[in-house]
# Entry
Amino acid sequence: MSKQFDVVVIGGGPGGYIAAIRAAQLGLSAACIDEWKTQDGKPAPGGTCTNVGCIPSKALLQSSEHFEHAGKHFGDHGIQVSGLGLDLAKMLGRKNAVVKQNNEGILYLFKKNKVSFFHGRGSFVKGDGSGYEIKVSGASEETITGKHVIVATGSNPRALPGAAFDEENILSNDGALRIPQVPKKLGLIGSGVIGLEMGSVWRRLGSEVTVLEALPTFLGAVDEQIAKEAHKAFTKQGLKIELGVKVGEVKNNGAKGVSIAWTDAKGGAQTLQVDKLIVSIGRVPNTVGLNPEAVGLKLDERGAIVVDDDCRTSLPNVWAIGDVVRGPMLAHKAEEEGVAVAERIVGQHGHVNFNTIPWVIYTSPEIAWVGQTEQQLKAAGVKYKAGTFPFMANGRARALGDTTGMVKFLAHAESDEILGVHIVGPMASELISEAVVAMEFRASAEDIARICHAHPSLSEATKEAALAVDKRTLNF
Ligand code: FAD
Ligand code: NAI
# Structure
């Protein structure tokens, strides 16, 4: 007889492992199946986020930023550096060690919470509302049964047609995080989140970076004023960003690198010759090997599992969360859905507020936002007031030597309710949390303006931007 669980989670990324832990906390017997493995075949739970996404990219962003500071900015503080060098193998090794700590942390959490972990691929065999059989194919094969199933199988990088990833020359996020030598010339297709983060890492380490972006506007989803400020900063740093381009033939020339034919915004034919090319043009939901047909699980035309607002699929007691369903492909969104689904399974009212999911791009300056942009409010005909405060006028930012950017508040013209907060500047990733809390509690701009913020701190720029909504900044 196969092992029986109240909940079987397929996929151990941030959506899946968190869902399994929450289910176990709620008294359910929970299993999590994940197939990711290290080079020597050991389990490496944590999904894209831990293995080739959030965690390793932030480790390299941090290391490369230290390198850039030591080379370019320590002098401003009166610190003389001589003999500065780069040990890329060590930097990549440190990144791998950070990943490993996270993999091991998740295995520990499974033990602590009594989640049964299965290493291998999970595929539907058969089932109905009373339970589902899932085959686990790993080092050995076995079948387990779940009364409920949560699918959290994540996403894969989208390839350019005719330019398959070989992870040697044409790189996805995976190869982009382990280039063994700093490429002299690096090309990037797509100036989205991965393009900007990975482009920043390799530029700081010495690559000449060119980014080819199809859209005519830079960071179209970001508030325009913030995107403009960020574009100015990245261009000044040396990132070459070409907008409104059409990418043509991409030739992988082996040891001779990659050549990309492209048309510029004016229609001129161009060729870009690079040592390595990173393709970051979005990701696609992953159901490879899941065998959804066996149970009739419905997918949409993009290959995403169809779910309602509560992550219920087309089948009774089968749920799906994270990158494999609609909505932003973000680790914290996947986690929130995982917790909410586990709570719904036991009859609680799990809740995810899609209006207050923060976004962060971990470049320098960082970009972070929550809620609506000015262009969205205009398009929707919402009457709003805007307030901005530049880091240039913030004492802590001056002390840090990092004064690029601003905080921007958008509040309803009549009620003063905060509708969006947008930050480009130092530690935007941390500052945005205050705005998320405020919006979750439906605070007004004045609420933030009346709260005591520590001095000197970057968060004072948040308070001042809230004051600016009412045209009463104190320090600008
Ligand atoms: P995943 O993390 O993709 O996990 C899915 C897991 O399921 C994988 O381990 C996979 O092997 C496993 N799996 C798939 N099919 C099966 C099967 N049939 N059987 C068993 N196991 C299976 N998001 C942020 O919020 N912040 C960031 O800073 C950030 N940085 C990123 C940087 C990069 C370079 C990339 C690529 C992504 C980044 N993301 C970031 C996005 C984030 O990684 C994803 O949104 C998140 O990982 C989605 O979580 P998930 O649990 O849905 O899926
Ligand atoms: P993206 O959606 O952020 O950006 C893709 C970019 O490629 C867009 O600007 C798009 O216009 C452009 N593009 C698409 N096709 C093109 C083509 N043929 N030629 C030129 N440009 C083209 O996708 P990206 O960067 O691949 O990242 C995938 C997802 O991973 C992100 O959307 C995000 O959800 C997640 N992620 C999150 C991070 C974070 O939270 N800090 C970091 C990295 C990734």
Residues 14 and 331 are 6 Å apart (CA to CA).
